[in-house]
Amino acid sequence: MSLVRNSFKFRGLMAPVFTAFKNDPVQSVNCELIDPYAKWLKERGIQAVLVNGTTGEGMSMSVSERKTTAEEWQKACRKHGMTLMLQIGGVPFVDVAELAKHADQLGVDAVLCLPELYFKPKTEPDLVKYLAKVATHCPKTPLLYYHIPVNTGVNLSMPKFLGLAEKEIDTFVGIKYTSGDLALGSACLAENRFIFLGADSILCGALAQGFDSSIMTILNVCPELAIEIYNAVKKGDVFKAREKQKELSAVVDRILAEGGGEWVPSMKKEFNRVFHTNIGNVRFPLA
User: Fold this and answer.
1) Band of pLDDT at residue 1, cut at 50, 70 and 90
2) Which long-range contacts (C-beta less than 8 Å, at least 24 apart) are formed by 252-261?
3) C-alpha span between 66 and 111 (Å, rounded)
4) What integer is the mean pLDDT of 84-112?
5) What is the predicted pLDDT for the residue at 124?
6) How many Å apart are CA 99 and CA 242, to the nearest integer?
7) Do residues 127 and 115 touch, judged by C-beta distance below 8 A?
8) Which of 95, 137, 194, 260 fits a 20 to 30 Å CA distance from 5?
9) What is the pLDDT of residue 44?
10) Above 90 in pLDDT, residue 2?
11) For residue 132, what are the contacts with CB-CB under 8 A and spacing of at least 6?
């Protein structure tokens, strides 16, 4: 295993953070709220964050905004002793390459990358070639793939892809698996792989099947409840884990019902309530 692969160690619960926008005509990024946001999460037991992902509306931001946000989160994570994963995909490849180089220069703990979203990869080898090209622009940084087929339309076999990627890409360490198919997700699990669950409502079941890490939006809202589920499964207290999962699922259902049903706008609205500081609304095309 390469030194870069070995450099990534984080396992556990990682919060995919929102991006704070100002209430001005262009909804400019409000970087002043990043440090207090990081401090708030750390005080509630969250040790790691994903920046510029789906929750953070990274794909609705310019390259310049994404780079500035990454820089400010890197400062906050170093200050508060947190792991930083940075999502660099969702834009034309020339911009992915620029974001990858920037992440490498910043020294983030890992990068996460979506597939090409227009000229989509049609086979697992196609996807490996794409990520191998991304990896050439961030050779010092562990790389993960962002599997979210409901948004990307790329629904390839993750077990097959993982086997190929590990052989072809020296810096490749795993995936963020955002799918409700636990059977297929469980088939991805293997020693030394980092498989981050991305589905909030099935944390208990996934942990019981062997997952040890998760990236969930709900960690911004009620991290304590998710941590209770995580710790209960680790201790073998399945009954408690199931009961807490019911509570967590009920919270998610309430947030969606009160927020109009759309995931990111509903969750951001709830975060504004619990954080007691308004981080702004979502950007168009979200509403």
Assistant:
1) low
2) 252/200, 252/201, 252/218, 255/221
3) 13
4) 98
5) 98
6) 40
7) yes
8) 95
9) 97
10) no
11) 168, 169
Instruction: Note the pTM of the prediction, 2 decimals.
Output: 0.97
Instruction: With beta carbons less than 8 A apart as the criterion, state whether 53 and 78 touch.
Output: no
d(CA 271, CA 280): 10
Name, in order, each residue with C-beta under 8 angstroms of 204's C-beta and a sequence gap of 6 or more: 229, 233, 241, 242, 244, 245
Structure tokens at 236: 């073998």
**Residue among 81, 74, 64, 55 nearest 217 (CA):** 55
Rounded CA gap, 38 and 17, in Å?
A: 9
Classify residue 201 by its DSSP letter: G
**What residues contact 144, with CB distance under 8 A and at least 6 apart?**
85, 110, 111, 112, 113, 172, 173, 174, 175, 176, 194, 196
Ordered DSSP codes for 94-113: HHHHHHHHHHHHHT-SEEEE
Cα–Cα distance for residue pair 205/165, rounded to 1 Å: 27
Match 């948004």 to its residue by tokens: 151
Q: Percent of the chain having pLDDT more than 90?
A: 95
- Evaluate the omega torsion of the peptide bond into residue 285 and state whether it is cis, within 30 degrees of 0: yes
Token pair listed for 1: 């295993």
From 263, 265, 259, 251, select the one nearest 221 (Cα to Cα).
251
Rounded Cα gap, residues 264 and 144, in angstroms:
22
Is pLDDT above 80 for 185? yes
Read off φ and ψ for residue 131, nearest 5 degrees: -70, -30
Mean pLDDT of 248-277: 96
- For the residues 247-274, what does the mean pLDDT come to? 96
Q: How many residues would you count in the chain?
A: 287
Average pLDDT, the chain: 96
